[in-house]
Design brief:
mainly alpha, two-stranded antiparallel ribbon, 8 helices, 2 strands, 73% helix
Length: 218
């Protein structure tokens, strides 16, 4: 992240906040499963295998949907490489919008599957040459880099741009808090707001930064 310009870092934080927002809704609606945090679902799947077959099946399904989103987002981004962020985010906006529609008709299980698909695809926004430069839906790696950066600064090796990863994590947490507050208040338009946010980010992406000028940092 140290090589990415400030506008790209800001954009990444916005994507992270969107992921946190959607993850909070998915977590509450599904009764404790995640739509962007697959480490948590992997733990739930393993525990479910030992204790509860249904929980394992739910977790495995969400993981499969997330993986499908990663694959689909990567393929879509490759097809529209010059406009990768916009193309991927437009698809995400449409998927979340469909999830919102299904939620209103009571098809919550299908809505959760679509949210996981969308969150998997979101990681393709910062993909380049087959590698994801910034993971905007999983925060463990960001926290590890924060810790390593702080340790490096203490040892005089440089900070490794840990401040950017800290902002990424803070953006995610802020998104989770806003999503939980909004959804918990009974606001039926919460997912529509997330879809709209993805649409706005898609439009802004073509002006906020130039991917061709950025170099891989992760």
């Amino acid at each position: 992240m140290t090589r990415l310009e400030s506008r790209a870092r800001l954009f990444a934080c916005c994507l992270s906040a969107l992921a946190g927002f959607v993850d909070a809704i998915g977590f509450i609606q599904s009764g404790g499963f995640f739509v962007s945090f697959m480490s948590g679902n992997s733990t739930r799947m393993g525990v479910g295998i030992a204790e509860n077959g249904l929980a394992a099946l739910v977790a495995a399904t969400i993981i499969a949907c997330f993986l499908g989103g990663v694959i689909g987002g990567s393929l879509l981004g490759s097809r529209f490489e010059g406009r990768r962020p916009a193309a991927v985010l437009l698809a995400i906006a449409a998927i979340i919008g469909l999830a919102a529609l299904l939620q209103q008709f009571g098809s919550e299980d299908y809505a959760i599957a679509l949210l996981a698909l969308a969150m998997g695809a979101e990681n393709a926004v910062f993909e380049r040459d087959g590698e994801v430069r910034i993971g905007v839906t999983y925060m463990t790696g960001s926290l590890v880099r924060v810790g390593n950066g702080i340790a490096g600064a203490i040892l005089g090796r440089g900070g490794n741009g840990w401040g950017g990863y800290l902002l990424l994590w803070l953006g995610f947490v802020a998104g989770v808090a806003v999503g939980a507050l909004s959804f918990g208040s009974g606001n039926s338009s919460t997912l529509w707001a997330a879809s709209g946010a993805a649409l706005v980010l898609a439009m802004l992406s073509t002006r906020m930064f130039a991917f061709e000028e950025s170099r891989p940092a992760i």
